[in-house]
Specification:
Layout lengths: L1 H19 L7 H15 L8 H6 L4 H18 L9 H30 L15 H12 L6 H25 L4 H8 L5 E2 L2 H19 L13 E5 L9 E4 L4 E5 L5 E2 L3 H8 L4 H9 L13 H13 L10 H25 L5 H11 L4 H13 L5 H20 L8 H9 L6 H8 L1
Parallel strand pairs: 2-4
Antiparallel strand pairs: 1-5, 3-4
């Protein structure tokens, strides 16, 4: 008992010493230097896509107490900084530090509660079966998406996006001149499927040559950054997705495992994975000068958001040469939209797998195998699938705000708009709101 008391006395004294240092950190450069040094010393684990990994990486109580002392110290120290004297870069770093301090204090409070209820074995069946599961889910939403979001808000967002996708798909069916049944039968015809790698590769390479000239003048440095390679994916572990981008070798891989490849995927996949999607955004960000503070943090949700956004504006650049190219985008978009509501349902509203599957079937026909795969993914990777839709919608909201201010007939300032979004690199969306407007 004496040893325990002695340890807490030491912690209290250490806390008092640290907090007393705040008066010496009124200069931003000194603050930045000291914060970065102490932040790195904490050796905080990176956010994992798996909830199980995140929970298993929670550190012991003493380490969590130490983290809390450090973050509280800098939370108080921030209040001594005169923001009116900060440069634009420093003001952004200030906002990032404040954001991360609040996020970490939120995490620490939850981890303290976790240590009081932690089971001997953490269930691998999803957050429904984990103590504090709903609280963990609310935290993961904030960490993956933005500190401002709530489960209820995102569930309603998912429902609205489902209806938006359905409306767009219906409009294309009407434009085809076919009735609904004839249209669906036509989509299944052999003319929409490739059955050999050479043809698929040729179509992607051809699309690559055609699309970049259409983007010049609307995306900064789009024809100046490192080129992207296109190859067939051979890793069956990634076979559940139609394509993926590998940053380490500047390559986007399309998956073809001897099943017909839907031609309606060519356009939106290239836009998403290559240019102006993942490859372009990552290469653009890599050439930016990063501050000491910016190097401490990463926001992977931003990447998926940008890549999903560029699919949305494909028609503005003639990226969809036929209505069926655009329809292919919506075929995948409705899956993403359904996943938003399912993610909240499974992880927050305690949906069973059967209820989630019924919800899927209500909105998507003939894709039950994909449904079960997505249900399992959502349970293992809570919140991650929402990043695509949420961030893309935020960027579209910014676009609408600018459009509303344009004079009649005034063209949309694509290059200026995209430069503003890209020039800071990946950031939380609530911080970007303050930068753009």
């Amino acid at each position: 008992m004496k040893t325990h008391t002695h340890i807490w006395c030491l912690l209290f004294c250490w806390s008092s010493i640290l907090l007393s240092q705040e008066v010496t950190l009124t200069d931003w450069n000194e603050f930045e230097k000291e914060f970065a040094k102490e932040y790195r010393r904490l050796h905080l684990p990176n956010l994992s896509i798996s909830y199980l990994d995140n929970l298993e990486l929670i550190q012991n109580k003493r380490t969590i107490d130490r983290q809390e002392i450090v973050f509280l110290k800098y939370k108080y120290a921030l209040q001594t900084i005169d923001q009116t004297k900060l440069s634009q870069v420093q003001a952004l770093d200030y906002a990032l530090v404040a954001y991360e301090i609040d996020m970490n204090l939120l995490r620490i409070a939850l981890e303290k509660k976790w240590h009081t209820v932690k089971p001997k074995h953490i269930s691998q069946e999803g957050l429904q079966h984990v103590p504090l599961g709903k609280e963990w889910y609310a935290y993961f939403l904030k960490r993956w998406i933005d500190v401002t979001v709530t489960p209820k808000e995102l569930y309603q967002f998912g429902l609205s996006e489902i209806e938006r996708a359905k409306k767009a798909m219906k409009a294309i069916q009407v434009a085809s001149g076919m009735d609904s049944l004839t249209f669906q039968k036509y989509l299944q015809g052999n003319h929409f499927y490739y059955n050999d790698v050479d043809t698929i590769q040729h179509q992607f390479e051809t699309y690559k040559k055609e699309i970049v000239p259409k983007l010049i003048g609307a995306f900064p440095k789009v024809n100046e950054l490192q080129d992207v390679k296109i190859e067939r994916g051979r890793n069956e572990a990634y076979g559940q997705v139609p394509a993926y981008y590998a940053e380490y070798d500047n390559t986007f891989y399309y998956n073809y495992f001897n099943t017909p490849f839907n031609t309606r995927q060519i356009a939106w996949i290239y836009l998403h994975e290559a240019i102006p999607g993942h490859h372009y955004q990552i290469k653009f960000e890599n050439q930016l000068k990063r501050s000491t503070i910016k190097e401490l943090f990463s926001y992977n949700g931003y990447r998926e958001s940008w890549a999903a956004y560029v699919e949305e504006i494909g028609n503005d650049f003639n990226a969809y040469t036929t209505i069926y190219d655009e329809y292919g985008k919506w075929e995948w978009d409705i899956i993403r939209s359904v996943r938003v509501a399912m993610d909240v349902g499974l992880n927050y509203y305690d949906w069973s797998d059967e209820k989630a599957l019924a919800f899927w079937k209500q909105h998507i026909k003939g894709q039950d195998a994909i449904a079960m795969r997505e249900i399992n993914r959502i349970k293992q990777w809570p919140a991650q699938v929402i990043t695509y839709k949420y961030g893309a919608n935020k960027i579209l909201e910014w676009k609408r705000i600018i459009e509303a201010k344009l004079a009649d007939g005034e063209p949309f300032p694509w290059l200026e708009f995209h430069t503003k979004i890209l020039q800071y690199g990946a950031l939380p969306f609530s911080i970007m709101d303050t930068l753009l407007f």
